[in-house]
Amino acid sequence: MIVSAIRQTSADRLLVLLEDGSEIRSTLGVVTALRLFAGRDLEDAELELLRRDSARALGRERALELISRRAMSRKELRDKLLRKGESEDTAAYCADWLSENGFLDEESYAAAVARHYGARGYGQGRVRQELSRRGLPRELWPEAMASMPEPDEKLDKLIASRLKDPQDPVQVRKVSQALYRRGYTWEDIRSALRRHEAQIEET
User: What is the pLDDT of residue 83?
Assistant: First the structure.
């Protein structure tokens, strides 16, 4: 396939026009690396390399823009790139490239997620759900969850604000179920209820 023309569309973007009328959006880096010029006859393998490397270079730029807005996991980045029309190959390549170059730090991100939900009064069960939903590797969970605040203080505040009568079984059940849905274990909830009841008895 013969390259009929190469047009510059911006400072680093080029459009490679082929003799069959098709076009390939590319970058200066890719065109330079492949030594392209108008009139060059590309073998099938060279044309495929041009398409792949161009897609990856443009995908990298998009990926960098996405993670500059907020931290994310490899899975979240990959899924977002796919939704924006990138191929499976390009999305996987971009996630690998950003990880290898230190732009994606899943360990720090996992800890930040755990601290965020812990500070908002959620228990470890809910935090595990969030870590899973974001596609963060399970081997990062224990250390991330170790950075959460201790549940006792949050639980005590939540129960004090919601449970007006610790002798009312209906109230106790509703509050307990609400806390369980927030990711606290039944054991933590029972302990907090006992602390709350003891505090009321002391006053």
Answer: 94
Q: Is the pTM of this model over 0.85?
A: no
Q: What six digits make up the tokens of 129?
A: 């759900």
| C-alpha closest to that of 62 among 105, 13, 4, 128 | 13
3-state secondary structure the chain: CEEEEEEECCCCEEEEEECCCCEEEEEHHHHHHCCCCCCCECCHHHHHHHHHHHHHHHHHHHHHHHHHHCCCCHHHHHHHHHHCCCCHHHHHHHHHHHHHCCCCCHHHHHHHHHHHHHHCCCCHHHHHHHHHHCCCCHHHHHHHHHCCCCHHHHHHHHHHHHCCCCCCHHHHHHHHHHHHHCCCCHHHHHHHHHHHHHHHHHC
Domain boundaries, the chain: 3-100, 106-146, 151-202
More confident residue, 35 or 182: 35
Architecture of the CATH domain 3-100: Orthogonal Bundle (1.10)
Nearest to 138 by CA among 64, 201, 75: 75
Q: Which two tokens stand for residue 184?
A: 């606290």
Q: What is the pLDDT of residue 149?
A: 66
Question: Average of pLDDT values for 113-139?
Answer: 86
